[in-house]
Amino acid sequence: MNNAESNAIENPEAQPQAEHTHAEGEHAHTHADGPPPMDEACKREISVEIPAEVVAQQQEAIVQQYSRQARIPGFRKGKVPASMVRNRFSGEITSEVVEALVPHYFREAVVKAGHKPVSQPSIYGLEFTPGEPMRFKAAFEVLPEFELGDYKSIKV
């Protein structure tokens, strides 16, 4: 472990909040609960709620897909019970549900609100509890609004 890594682990709040990568299971710091800093004049935030029925349907479809492909000792391929798939692959299933639903519902909410994003959204505040609607917030930037002055009266 180099000096920067040990300093980051010992004093995580002193480190700048930038994009980073780390190995699975290596998580010695916390992520910010809010969006990254953006220009306030161009920043827009939306809250999105995905109905519980939609989340359950997507989750069940992914469980069925895993059941068909999973290789677990004691079961033939394609014959693994859904309950065992849910227990063994719960993290992966949750991740796939989020990856499948969040972009779709984000785009839908942005169109409904009439925004035209020019940056990638920052998704934060994700709440996912089985049997309840999935909720998240997204922050993104839009083009600034401005009015042209009377430019025709200017002589060139």
What would you note in describing this structure?
The protein is α+β, with helices and mostly antiparallel strands. The chain has a domain at 36-141: Trigger factor ribosome-binding domain (Alpha-Beta Plaits, 2-Layer Sandwich), CATH 3.30.70.1050. 37% of the residues lie in helices and 14% in strands. It has four helices and three strands, in the order H-E-H-H-H-E-E. The protein has helices at 3-10, 52-69, 82-88, 90-113, and strands spanning 43-50, 122-127, 134-141. Strands 1-3-2 form a three-stranded antiparallel β-sheet. Helix 2 (52-69) runs antiparallel to helix 4. The termini are far apart.
SSE order: HEHHHEE
Helix content: 25-40%
Query: What is the number of helices?
Result: 4
Task: Describe the global form.
Answer: elongated
CATH class of the domain at 36-141: Alpha Beta
Number of extended strands = 3
- Which spans of ≥5 residues are poorly predicted at pLDDT below 50? 1-32
CATH homologous superfamily label of the domain at 36-141: Trigger factor ribosome-binding domain
CATH architecture of the domain at 36-141: 2-Layer Sandwich
Strand order of the largest sheet: 1-3-2
For the termini, the CA-CA separation is: 63 Å
